[in-house]
Amino acid sequence: MATLALVTLPLSGHLRPMLATARALRAAGHQPVIIGPADLTARVPNDVETRTVGVTDLGPGRLDTICECLSRMGSLSDVRQMFSAVAILSKFYLDNLPDAVEDLQASAILHDQLEPAAGIVARGLAMRSGLAHISLACALPMNRDPSVPPPFMGWRYRRGRFGAWLNGGYYNVVNWLLSEQGRILEAGAERFGLLKKPGLEDWQRAWSVDDGLSRTTDLAQGLASLDFPRERPPTYLGPFREAERHYPGLDAIAMERDGRPLAFISLGTLMGGRSPVLAAMARAATARGLQPVVVHGGRLNAETAAMPRGTILRDFLDQRDILSEAEAAIIHGGYNSTTDAVAAGVPVVTVPQAFEQGAIAARVERAGLGRTVGLFGPSLSQRIQLALGDVLSSKAVAQAVRRTRFEAMAAPGLGGLVAAVDGVLSDRTPTQPLRENVHQSGRWPMLIGQPAE
Fold first, then answer.
1. Percent of the chain with pLDDT over 70
2. CA 251, CA 325: separation in Å to the nearest integer?
3. Cα 199 from chain centroid (whole Å)
4. Residue 437, pLDDT above cutoff 60
5. Which of 34, 10, 15 is nearest to 109 (CA)?
6. Strand, helix or coil at 409?
7. H-type helices in 237-347, by residue range?
8. How many C-beta atoms surround the C-beta of residue 130 within 10 A?
9. pTM
């Protein structure tokens, strides 16, 4: 049995796959422990072990306050607050994770790749003591590649020099926007003696998500079909889904069904309060002869939702169960919702709202799995209705969805993750400690030795 320190983000779409990871590792005989601030560990069910750290840095309520902007993203102030929250979390883990890993006597750090500070800590401790480092993309892989557009842009995939030039230019813009986090990551890297390789492009020189990726075990929950081609892709394991249902399913809506085929409609847990968009989605489904099932994450109520007659409205439902009988999914392009839809063999209409949803929508279209409707423009409901009619009648979309469903069925999922972790732990060989500088910061000194790759 090995103890593994797990690091995740305080967002439902990231926390759920990590909880599934923790339960699968525990069933395999390991001891996974999710490490984080009080607001994050409070969201973890009692059956998963946690370790709350940094109470003086991010006490109860503090993390929720700085992350409030993520459910809005309607102003420049919200965007700035998001970048600040990202930097605060990275500093939190650089300051608190090393001691927690030592106290747990953990054999490995397994972290969401969107928290690169945990990856920098893992790389530094791997140099010092042979700790295993495993990075995991719980959502869209963020691995930087000259041929792949930045994950926050809904650009199409372009090969060749022009595409690389265009992508590189915007990666530089991303570096500028995330400069506060970049400075924090660079300081943490210097603390552990991690250096950049020479000969990098401009957009690779700034410290970023890429520097937190594992150099040996870079995993992704999801499907290769839902990503662009990459020179060095992560290992796609398929969706991480547990057999046990945590929310009501088809049986909970049986009395409200009226005989029409179902359309699954959702904007995820963060954006579920956008009633006008959800209502437009529901009207489009109704116009196509489908019964809308709207899941809003507890952000709407029946009095304010203004949905068409016959709409089934719920806080939460087991989306895999609903999708098993749905004709189509009209969603925001969130990674887990999109993956569940295509894994169920359901065509998708995406209406991206924020974050990497536009990039996921671009991948959906390239794979032929559905269509994208822009949020802004006239007659949103009518545009969704046209796109919905297209995906429901297209033989090409049906064939693409069928192929991707078979890909999901064949993927190893959580079993593949456990096998990868077991393989890393069995190969783990402690290294000789590096020579230490006499100037120490807390319990973890600056390490002097061979620069890390």
1. 92
2. 12
3. 30
4. no
5. 34
6. helix
7. 275-287, 319-323, 335-343
8. 14
9. 0.87
